[in-house]
Amino acid sequence: MNPNTDRLANGPPMPAEVEAKLAAIVRAVLDLPPEMDVTGAEQTAIGTWDSLAHVSLMLALESEFGISIDVTDQVRLTSYRAIHDWLAERR
Q1: Is residue 24 in some structural domain?
Q2: Is the separation of the CB atoms in 5 and 16 below 8 Å?
Q3: Nearest-angstrom CA–CA distance, 82 and 86
Q4: DSSP characters for 72-83?
Q5: Residues 73-87: pLDDT tens digits?
Q6: Could you report the per-residue pLDDT of 21-42, keeping only the tens digit for each?
Q7: CA end-to-end span of the chain, whole Å?
Q8: CB 3.0 to 4.6 Å from 88: which of 12, 37, 48, 73, for a disulfide?
Q9: What pairs with residue 5 in β-bridges?
Q10: Nearest residue to 84 (alpha-carbon basis) of 3, 1, 9
Q11: Residue 61 parent element (H or E)
């Protein structure tokens, strides 16, 4: 595996800089500590990940990565893993 890519479990690989950017966005939007490992984060387990934070997270991802996330995808992107894999498939 290329050392400049990261693979979350069995998901598709993602460039390390994109992975770092994704983690930073999740931490910032959800007001999580900078040292927190967010790779296992799920909406149901993070108290700050409410519906408003979810919309803010989707908007931040769209803005940062220059993508559009349709509503169908937004509804199912409720974990770091789901977001990671969705982004990796489109990069």
Answers
A1: yes
A2: yes
A3: 6
A4: HHHHH--BHHHH
A5: 999 999 999 999 999
A6: 999 999 999 999 999 999 999 9
A7: 17
A8: 12
A9: 15
A10: 9
A11: helix 51-65
